[in-house]
Design goal:
The protein is an alpha/beta fold. It contains four helices and five strands. It has a five-stranded mixed beta sheet, with helices on both faces. The protein is globular and about 35 Å long. The N and C termini lie far apart (30 Å).
Length: 122
C-alpha cells in the first residue's frame, strides 16, 4: 500500500510504502500526488518511508515505478529514502550518480533529519 504522509512543507511529497504494492497504488495515490506537485512547483522533492520488501511489489507496480521514474526524470530535486533496508541505502549512492537531483538514505530514527533535508530548496 502507498499512503500520503501529511504535515510536510507544501513543496514535499510524502509517501509511506508498506505491505503489498499493486499497480493501482501508483495510479490512485502516487501519480495524483506527483501531478499536483508538478503543477505547483518546478522540481519534485519527495520523502519516502519504505517499510516493505521488494517481493511485495507486483509486476504491474514495478512497471509503474519505472514509468514514473522516467516520466519525471528531469523533475526530481531531492528524494529522502527512510528505511531499515541496508540494500536500499547502498543503492541510493549508485542511483544518485545517474539521476539528476539528489537521493539520500536515512534510518527511521533520522526521520526529522530526512524531513529537514528534503524540505530544503536548491
Amino acid at each position: 500500500m502507498i499512503s500520503v504522509i501529511e504535515n510536510l512543507p507544501p513543496h514535499v511529497i510524502g509517501l509511506h510504502i508498506s505491505g503489498k504494492i499493486a499497480k493501482d497504488d501508483y495510479k490512485q495515490v502516487l501519480e495524483p500526488a506527483i501531478q499536483q506537485q508538478e503543477n505547483e512547483f518546478d522540481k519534485l522533492n519527495c520523502l519516502i518511508v519504505y517499510d516493505t520488501e521488494m517481493q511485495h511489489f507486483s509486476l504491474g507496480a514495478l512497471l509503474e515505478d519505472l514509468k514514473t521514474d522516467f516520466k519525471y526524470y528531469n523533475k526530481w530535486n531531492r528524494v529522502a529514502l527512510v528505511t531499515t533496508k541496508d540494500y536500499l541505502k547502498k543503492v541510493t549512492g549508485l542511483i544518485s550518480s545517474v539521476i539528476p537531483g539528489q537521493l539520500k538514505g536515512f534510518e527511521p530514527s533520522e526521520i526529522e533529519e530526512a524531513k529537514a533535508w528534503v524540505g530544503q530548496f536548491d
